[in-house]
Write a structure and sequence with these properties.
Layout: H1 6-29, H2 32-55, E1 61-70, E2 81-85, H3 98-109, E3 115-118, H4 134-137, E4 146-148, H5 163-179, E5 183-184, E6 188-194, E7 197-203, H6 219-222, E8 231-232, E9 238-239, E10 244-247, H7 252-261, E11 266-269, E12 294-298, E13 301-305, E14 321-330, E15 336-338
Parallel strand pairs: 1-14, 2-3, 3-4, 4-5, 7-10, 10-11, 11-13
Antiparallel strand pairs: 1-15, 2-14, 6-7, 8-9, 12-13
Length: about 350
């Protein structure tokens, strides 16, 4: 219900309620000689910002290049390039906006990545939104594969249907991702090999601290079969932990589940959209999330939160849609990440 009426709610609040409230506050709280004029100016600014965010800001795209360095990265993966995108919400990229997904796919392929990953929220509400975009989604290919996880919107949470219909729609969303040629990871992992070295790409189902969100993530199941402590080789020398890249849609799962339950060195996440607004370095996402964009570190372990490619509501102000290019760097002394 919330998702279905989000756009109507946004338009009413942005272009009617907020300008009117600002005008009235200035009109009655400020001195008469300039209170009315100030109220008109502020109301017009809100309307102009709203129009800009809808028709310009939402169409902007940024390719963000970052590096992640760790002593745990195998030598054969030094310089390995991963393209991450998140929160595509391609149900919004339809009609006159259909070109936006084509541009995003072109931009990702132009990075010549070794691997592409998607960290959830492909649809807005229903899986049927994906069908017209399958030709573009099938274009996303990389030498070591295209991997994805589900976001909260991909679980039929916002569908006003009975439980059986919702479950059928969930399966349809999963099937459509697989039809696109993506490897959908649902509490599971894959091992990627280069020469005699390897890394692990793991995909955990959605898990959020807000109880109405899907909480199906299972760290133990996701990493089942992998060593969770250093071992010894045949000569008795220490063998480090495998280098694990964890995909998880909701960044709150990092502190709640991933950090305490496993040794994944790098987690890639999304979900927050960065609040879709950033003015003077401030974002409304800070009211709901402690960590909502960019790098987060805890000792030698890190998480990168993408602020997303698209949005349910086609509005962005000071925060373009983003594609992230992550280059892995072998570091023999310590782990760190650089934007």
């Amino acid at each position: 219900m919330i998702a279905r009426y989000a756009m109507s709610f946004f338009l009413i609040v942005t272009f009617l309620v907020t300008p009117l409230v600002l005008y009235l506050l200035c009109r009655y709280l400020l001195p008469r000689r300039w209170g009315k004029k100030t109220g008109v100016v502020l109301a017009l600014l809100v309307i102009l910002f709203g129009l800009y965010g809808l028709f310009v800001g939402y169409q902007q795209l940024e390719v963000c290049h970052i590096e992640y360095a760790s002593k745990d990265i195998p030598a054969a993966f030094d310089g390995y390039r991963i393209v991450q995108f998140s929160d595509a919400h391609i149900g919004t990229m339809t009609g006159s906006r259909k070109w936006m997904l084509e541009r995003a796919v072109d931009s990702m392929l132009a990075q010549h990545p070794d691997m592409i990953v998607f960290t959830g929220d492909l649809q807005n509400v229903y899986p049927e939104e994906l069908i017209e975009h399958l030709p573009q989604l099938r274009r996303l290919k990389a030498p070591d594969g295209m991997y994805s996880v589900l976001g909260n919107h991909d679980y039929a949470v916002y569908q006003p249907d009975d439980s059986l219909t919702k479950e059928a729609n969930c399966k349809k969303t999963q099937e459509l991702e697989r039809q696109a040629g993506w490897t959908l990871l649902m509490n599971e992992h894959r091992v990627v090999h280069r020469d005699s070295d390897s890394i692990v790409i793991a995909g955990m189902e959605n898990w959020g601290t807000i109880k109405r969100m899907p909480r199906r993530g299972d760290v133990g199941k996701t990493l089942a079969g992998l060593p969770d402590y250093p071992s010894l080789d045949r000569e008795g020398q220490g063998v480090g932990l495998p280098f694990i890249i964890m995909l998880q849609h909701d960044p709150t799962a990092w502190r709640e589940k991933i950090l305490p339950e496993c040794q994944a060195q790098l987690t890639l996440s999304g979900h927050t959209h960065g609040g879709q607004v950033r003015l003077l370095g401030l974002s409304p996402a800070s009211l709901s999330y402690k960590e909502y964009g960019g790098w987060v570190h805890e000792g030698s372990r890190s998480m990168f939160i993408s602020t997303g490619l698209g949005a349910l509501i086609p509005f962005r102000l000071g925060l373009p849609g983003e594609i992230v290019v992550i280059t892995l760097k072998k570091n023999h002394f310590y782990s760190h990440s650089l934007r």
